[in-house]
């Protein structure tokens, strides 16, 4: 190594090959492939690892090359996907459902399956891959929120599974929780703002804007899902809360998470234009809550609150001077309160969404899982 303690580029360690099978080659999948490509030298020198993407799988079929798909082919396959076409129609692609694709691929301990999809249909394959000794890294929250018995099965060898990117994208929320648990310090409670979209909404409300105005603004800027209720319903935050709660040690199911949506039940059945048109009806109610919090010296946040007995997601007035109270904009922030840290929590903050940051979480997990095998 040179004087600054960095491995010298001449010192090549012997490299261990990891076969990467990518489920869901969309925007996040593309960011993962780009990051693996640009980090090759670091992975080889620092960790003695060589990652080869051997398969790209979508719901229509797959592209596979047992020695690793060439960079140029990966680039054109991802561009193909981005233009709205399907993997089975790409040159060299095969039509197959995910089940047949994975069984054709010979998943073994040299493989690592990366889930960048948004469906719970991948859960049985992740369980099966782990059973074959492969590693699994997921940015998809749904498998980690499966029924607890299945979750327990997935977590039998925790070193073989990485799910950093399911909570807060690449910001190391999961890693921090694991680290505190490993130290033996006792966690008392966890609370956090786990939605960039809802963070943006809370900041707008605090600035005195009307609820309907901020929602429409976020929708127009593409910060929300096409149907804003997918964000405003709180389910995405509820999944992240469940993942943290289970990692801490709870046996909760999805139904045990108490979720407060940011719209009344009667708005659920409206179509999108009618929903958007009805939003001003809620302005007064939310303005009142913001003002009440302000009067109490607090700030209104959409918070996941987790302790040993419960998991609650909803609006909460927090101390203005707390890390959550000072948070503004779309960053995610999590406070870990523990016995040793007392009333000054360990705080992790950073971007909670975006393809590139999500890829950071995935590739970091890939390295950790590969080194543990």
UniProtKB/TrEMBL annotation:
Quick one: which pathway?
A: Amino-acid biosynthesis; L-methionine biosynthesis via de novo pathway; L-homoserine from L-aspartate: step 3/3; Amino-acid biosynthesis; L-threonine biosynthesis; L-threonine from L-aspartate: step 3/5
Q: Which GO terms describe its biological process?
A: methionine biosynthetic process; threonine biosynthetic process
Question: Domain Aspartate/homoserine dehydrogenase NAD-binding, which positions?
Answer: 24-155
The yes or no answer to whether the keyword Ribosomal protein is present is no
Q: Which reaction is this enzyme known to catalyze?
A: L-homoserine + NADP(+) = L-aspartate 4-semialdehyde + NADPH + H(+)
Write down the InterPro entries for this protein, in alphabetical order. Answer: Asp/hSer_DH_NAD-bd, Bifunc_Aspkin/hSer_DH, HDH_cat, HDH_CS, HDH_short, NAD(P)-bd_dom_sf
A molecular function (GO) held by this record is:
homoserine dehydrogenase activity
Q: Which family does it belong to?
A: Belongs to the homoserine dehydrogenase family.
Protein name, UniProt field: Homoserine dehydrogenase
